Amino acid sequence: MIYLLYIVLLVMAAIVFKVLASLCHQLGHAVPALLWGIDDVIIFVGSEHDQKNCKSWRRGRLLLYWRPNRLWVEGGVTKFQLATLAYRQQIIALAGGHLVILALLLLSVIIFVTAKPTNFWAILNAVALSVLLVELLYPSLKTNSEPDDAQADPYDYKRIKKLIRLKPNERLLLQAQMWDLRKEFSKSAATLLPWVERGDAPSWVYGSVVDLHNLAGEHAEAVAAARAKMQRFGANSDDYVWLAWLLERAAQPQEACLNLEKALRMNPRNTNALNNYGSFLSMNGRQEEAIPILERAIRINPNIANPHANLGYVKIKMGLLEEGMQDISRALVLDQENSGAFFSIAVYLQALGRHGEALPYLELAHALHPEFAFYRDALDEALIAAKGGHS
Fold first, then answer.
1. pLDDT tens digits, residue range 258-308?
2. CA-CA distances (angstroms) from residue 51 to 45, 48, 56, 63, 390?
3. Is 302 helix (H, G, I), strand (E, B) or coil?
4. Which of 142, 291, 332, 355 is a Cys-bridge partner for 72, taking CB atoms 3.0 to 4.6 Å apart?
5. 3-state SS, residue 56
6. Whether the Cβ atoms of residue 332 and residue 338 lie closer than 8 Å to each other
7. In angstroms, how far is the first alpha carbon of the chain from the final one?
8. Per-residue pLDDT reduced to its tens digit, 193-239
9. What is residue 372's DSSP assignment?
10. Which are the contacts of 29, defined by CB distance < 8 A and separation ≥ 6?
């Protein structure tokens, strides 16, 4: 009976030793990444990368996920984390786990050789030595758990070699992706700026910087980046339409109008330019000038929803309610989630005095494009009016 108890205790000790050894191994990877990196360092304890169904603990950039009913440990260094480190730092981060296990193994050997334990403690020490050897030779030993694609498996040497031999521009791109995934768009754009400033960035990198500034709400910076791209690579009619849209978001409507006019001089059949120019005219009270512009866009391409929606809006503002709703119906046939059409329906209902019915359409338009200040302002006004009506 006593031997059976010994066996049970040794098995339990082996399980505990394996978890502790794996945790020490991953901390060996994590500590250099915490010291030199900028991304979160994640360690999974029995979670199988299943972050939704496990508990978490955070201390600074160290993030620990665990499930009490699972015992293996994995995680430590992600490919994004590696990308933020210098070459030598990457080597230390990747080797750190093995170095910690080697140190523990050496300590265990010293204790085994120098101490005079009883037979049980000698066997226990032997179990610890065995577990450390397993962890050193095969650290990813676990049950039915596949490493996440973002993880850098220390034994996937081809991937590691590729990661630590990234070119400087590739490293910047990977860092920018990291910030983008964390929705820190301003930092992502700032990461790509050195590549742009060196003058060897391709066109799509400039475009990414513009989009990231735009997502961060940095509209002036987005305009500057767009102009830099156009200056570096030249510009066509669509580029000026794009710049006009950015200028409008940067609260520079007159500059936006000038760029739309330039786009139309370059290509009079540019339907996006015609649609945006007609929309600009209508938003500035020049409805009669907007109608022929929008009708021309529809003649060139009748299968685009936005010119129909904008034309319907202009007619409704001019008091041609039923004609306007016909255009709105055509827009919704082409695009059932056209925000401009929903907004125009709201304007139509408000013109009929049916303000309560207009509110859901304003909410739909805003939900589809929350970045459009025009929709947001109209919704705010409608909500204030609705509260005043109920008070």
1. 999 999 999 999 999 999 999 888 888 888 888 999 999 999 999 999 999
2. 11, 8, 8, 11, 45
3. coil
4. 142
5. strand
6. yes
7. 82
8. 888 888 888 888 999 999 999 888 898 999 999 999 999 888 899 99
9. -
10. 76, 77, 93, 94, 96, 97, 154
